[in-house]
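Annex B.
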Amino acid sequence: MQLARCNPDAVSIVSVLSACSKLQAVLLGKSARAFSVRKQLASDLKVTNALLAFYSDYHQLSSSVQLFNMTAIRNVVSWNTLISEKTTAFLHQMHKDGMELDFVTLISILPVFSERKDLLQGMAIHGFAIKTGIASDVSY
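Pentatricopeptide repeat-containing protein: predicted structure tokens.
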């Protein structure tokens, strides 16, 4: 775009960050973030939310929290993205600490992956539930 003398705006940055997430182009996404800061687009709420989603896709919780805390104006998308990322981080930590996930854990986290449209994580959780027998636990 810049070679064609077009000035990328906030919508362009949001699109680039979304594409970077889908293509797993982390370095390009970080470059888009740096560009947005240089061009003073990073304070745009759409860009902020796209950055939060980008960090969330790569489980960079500390970067997500730092950006969230620096953001003066937040909306429900900002909050949902951070809550979703923290849920994922807590789930990983719970598993790492040797805690067994139960039916309640699974029904608490599946909506998070549904909201994020994270089909692979949702399928992984579903497979885990079947493999461990949690899916057939109806005692709750």
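The chain has a mean pLDDT of 85. The helical segments are 10-23, 26-38, 45-57, 61-70, 76-96, 103-115, 119-132. Further annotation is deferred to the next reporting cycle.
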